[in-house]
Q: What sequence folds into this?
């Protein structure tokens, strides 16, 4: 199984980014998929999750600003991030829930 995260970068506060997570070697459509993030010196935290049928959950800190989505036919998940804040700066990881499979992480840096 491989999870390939991409789309991070440097953006000014208030800007937007779209992260992607492409999965291979897995039955993608049966799993809940998560986006986590880890800021320097902090624990990894769950940002958003999406079920196989498309039900979503978000951390309070990103509600109304981030949108998680998936296309099971393309084995791909996205995280649309808008209204970015400096405190959103972190490495973002995709994760297949219930497994040990993680993407490699993509850096998001938000400047003030």
A:
């Amino acid at each position: 199984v491989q999870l390939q995260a991409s789309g991070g970068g440097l953006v000014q506060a208030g800007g937007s980014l779209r992260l992607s997570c492409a999965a291979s070697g897995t039955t993608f459509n049966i799993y809940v998929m998560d986006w986590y993030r880890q800021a320097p010196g902090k624990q990894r935290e769950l940002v958003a999750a999406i079920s196989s049928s498309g039900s979503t959950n978000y951390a309070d800190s990103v509600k109304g600003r981030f949108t998680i989505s998936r296309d099971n036919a393309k084995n791909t998940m996205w995280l649309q991030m808008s209204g970015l804040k400096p405190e959103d700066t972190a490495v973002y990881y995709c994760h297949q829930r219930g497994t040990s499979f993680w993407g490699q992480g993509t850096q998001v840096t938000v400047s003030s």
